[in-house]
Design goal:
Layout lengths: L21 E6 L7 E6 H15 L8 E4 L6 H14 L2 E2 L19 E4 L1 H4 L14 E4 L6 H11 L4 E6 L3 E6 L9 E2 L4 E4 L4 E5 L9 E9 L6 E6 L3 E4 L2 E4 H9 L4 E7 L9 E6 L1 H10 L1 H12 L11 E4 L13 H9 L6 E7 L3 E7 L19 H16 L7 E7 L8 E8 L5 E8 L3 E9 L6
Parallel strand pairs: 3-4, 3-5, 5-6, 6-7, 17-18
Antiparallel strand pairs: 1-2, 7-8, 8-9, 10-11, 11-12, 12-13, 14-15, 16-17, 19-20, 20-22, 21-24, 22-23, 23-24
């Protein structure tokens, strides 16, 4: 956020007109390009006025407002600075972007202003801090699992604020179940347009005008509560077909193997869908068993029950957490950066397996990390990489140990080059103490071979 030009009077004995005082926030949106959003002090004060009666009865007069988010974000400015000033509460001046920077200073009953990224990165030491009275977050989605983990650790379910830089706060919820709807803030009226997208009206948003969002929703007519159904503008064309990225994400998250997922086009010039996935505990176990390629194929088969072929991701990245910026949002440029990382595994085009033999057909992409610097003018696949793949795939397919006690009869006959399609054949010895492997191609014959040997106890 940058402060905009202000027309507030400069004389100290004059009260500034809130409608003429404003700040300009620069939001990156999804592209990373700055977009200026002007907010008047009148709008900000109006939002605080409608929210304060909701939360103040749950907070002791001595409670402090402690921020883990920056005041340069509109949510951080309103909750960390403007709200405590208007309500006469103590607040910490400097944000503590990491739990470790503030957990030793917390007092019983403090109010925490956090982001989804903070609540997805709880650590056991936080169980010993004085319990907060309320925890707020905004700026991105929080899944039910992490909402409950927060409640279990701190004794209070976090309050999520839904809105945007353009609108300010629209609604709130505390996820007591996976079906918790959003409740509009006092004075906020919701409705749907002909495309099923949410529009809202409130004094702090657009006064008497309606503000149209791109969020699809379902509104309960009596209460006005609503459920968000994904972004209407997250539609892409692949192979001439319209594909809803939100729909593909929802089908992925419905799998018991997946905790979180984001689906996108990693590159405007490459119309193959990509998926960034955080696996569940069950998913991590399957990924260890199957490897990246086969895990992606498994998830594709699950999605295929609901989506057409054009909507099935072809590029997969399995990560510990979805990339976010400092405000907990997921800008497109950060998500695309995940796919710019060079792959470490070949594409497995075909797998044929029996009890004691496996045949893999591998395509060696030119951007494999192992071709970098080996060698600059004539890249070839290093022998150590060939050995590593043989050991890793043998472990995945046969259940052999991930490390060997000895490698014998190792021979490298011909170089393996970028872009080549090669075959890896592995045969398990009946004693389960060794695996014979060889790389070969249809055109060049044998490329390399060797025997992996294992300790008897390990095997």
């Amino acid at each position: 956020m940058k402060a905009g030009q202000t027309t507030c009077p400069q004389q100290p004995d004059q009260t500034p007109d809130p409608a003429r005082c404003f700040a300009v926030f620069f939001t990156s949106g999804s592209t990373g390009l700055p977009k200026p959003i002007t907010k008047t002090l009148e709008q900000i004060e109006s939002e605080v006025t409608i929210q304060d009666p909701l939360w103040s009865p749950m907070i002791s007069p001595s409670a402090r407002v402690v921020g883990l988010v920056s005041h340069q974000h509109i949510y951080g400015l309103i909750f960390r600075v403007i709200w405590p000033v208007m309500s006469g509460r103590i607040f910490t001046a400097d944000p503590a972007p990491f739990w470790e920077m503030m957990q030793g200073d917390l007092k019983d009953g403090d109010v925490l202003i956090t982001s989804p990224a903070h609540l997805k990165n709880l650590h056991p030491g936080l169980a010993d801090i004085p319990p907060p009275s309320l925890i707020f977050l905004s700026g991105g989605p929080l899944d039910y699992k992490h909402a409950q983990a927060t409640r279990d650790m701190f004794g209070t379910c976090p309050i999520e604020i839904y809105g945007s830089t353009e609108t300010g706060g629209i609604a709130y919820r505390r996820q007591t179940s996976t079906e918790t709807d959003w409740t509009p803030l006092p004075g906020v009226t919701p409705r749907l347009n002909v495309k099923g997208c949410l529009a809202v009206q409130a004094p702090h948003i657009a006064k008497a005008d309606w503000y149209q969002t791109e969020d699809k929703a379902d509104i309960e007519p009596t209460s006005g509560k609503f459920r968000l159904l994904g972004r209407a503008d997250r539609i892409v064309k692949i192979e001439g077909k319209r594909v809803s990225l939100s729909s593909v994400e929802q089908h992925l998250i419905a799998s018991d193997l997946v905790s979180e997922a984001v689906v996108l086009l990693p590159d405007e010039n490459d119309r193959r869908l990509g998926a960034i996935v955080v696996l569940s505990d069950a998913g991590l176990a399957r990924h260890k068993e199957l490897g990246t390629f086969r895990m992606g194929r498994l998830l594709r088969r699950q999605i295929a029950e609901f989506e057409e072929d054009a909507a099935l991701p072809q590029r997969w990245r399995f990560v510990d957490q979805i990339p976010t910026d400092s405000q907990g949002k997921r800008p497109l440029h950060l998500l695309r950066a995940v796919f710019e990382q060079r792959p470490t595994e070949p594409d497995i085009l075909e797998t044929v397996q029996t009890d004691d033999q496996v045949a893999l057909k591998l395509r060696l992409r030119e951007d494999l990390i192992y071709f970098v610097g080996h060698f600059p003018d004539m890249p070839i696949l290093p022998g150590v990489t060939q050995l590593h793949w043989a050991t890793s795939y043998a472990s995945s397919m046969f259940g052999t140990p991930e490390t060997t006690s000895e490698v014998s009869q190792l021979k490298f006959r011909k170089p393996i080059l970028p872009g080549h399609v090669v075959n890896l054949e592995m045969r398990l010895d009946t004693s389960r103490l060794k695996v014979k492997f060889r790389y070969f191609s249809d055109s060049d014959g044998d490329l390399s071979s060797g025997i992996l040997k294992y300790d008897g106890d390990a095997a």
